[in-house]
Design brief:
The protein contains 16 helices and 11 strands. With 359 residues, it is an alpha/beta fold. It has 2 domains: 35 residues, no CATH class; 230 residues, Rossmann fold (3-Layer(aba) Sandwich). The strands form 2 sheets. The protein has an 8-stranded mixed β-sheet, with helices on both faces. Strand 6 and strand 7 form a beta hairpin. Helix 1 runs antiparallel to helix 3, helix 1 packs parallel to helix 4 and helix 4 packs antiparallel against helix 8. The longest helix has 21 residues.
Length: 359
Amino acid sequence: MNKRERLGFAGAALCAAAALVGAAAAQEAEKSEPTALTGSAKLREEAIKVGELFESALVTDFLMAAPTVSDVAVRKVFLDRPNRVWYTPEQAAALPEEMRKGLREIDAGTDFYLGTTYGSPLAFSRLLDLAGSCGAQPQMTELRGKRVLDIGYGNIGHLRMMAARGAEAVGVDVDTLQPALYRKPSDQGVVNGLDGKPAGTVTLVKGNWPSEPEAKEKVGTGFDIIASKNTLKRGYVHPWQPVDPKQLVHLNMSDAEYVKAVYAALKPGGLFVIYNICPPFAKGDEPYKPWADGRCPFDERLLRDAGFVVLAFDQEDHKASREMFVALGFAPTMEEAAASTFAWMTIAWKAPEGFVAPK
């Protein structure tokens, strides 16, 4: 089955799943005004749209997991906005009364559970599309049996989708939101696939990887893909203007040490993919926006010195990111996306032993 046939099959499967979800409410829907889709139904519809954009077998495999995503019951979390600290209800109740007064209470439904403050988990699709189409790994056509690490994972939706297709999906993050939100034992561990049987696993790690020994041990090694979407940005790691430290990504080690740690955590043939989607750079007297600089924070030389074969370095990917944003409803038109959405990618390959680079 070629890529286009696989995409057609995936689209048909997703459409069928969406139809099944909506069938039970069809008669009632005819009697009322149409409403915007939310939760798992929204994700299934978005998966169909995104599936029309990308052709790699790997991203098709990922999107086929959309029907496995279910709605979740509302969970309460509390935010100390000035300090950017999140709490569970139990943690919030244990705080001094004066601190509790300043907390914002949030009822987190399915959309927030899947995407938190970062939007749709399907925004991970383009990164997987690049991993599956860069040509370094002919076997990178499905997620089954793959180990995938997401640095600064942000939300659980894409991890659970990868696990539903048979991956060992590991997310690591320093934020307090994820432990507060994903606090139930069922959020991690085994995830069932389309057939309802155990497929893959999700593991969530709180900590600064790889600088913290405990986080490094929990994350482990032997990854097929180590991904960073919107985390390892040059503006976050090496801003060219002074900014609030809370806005930065602190490696707590040298760039060279970090790159070597990534290389060591990959299995031979593994990929290190950095994909950053950004707003436009500040203009004129506008305040500096570190998140707007999505170029790779590491020199290309450091990647090569660590042993990587660099397949793409700071390559622009604006058009694909804009098409994805329109499909996901982040931008109404391509014209508006062109003014607001920019993307850069870097792909480094840990070539298998015995590989000789062409001259």
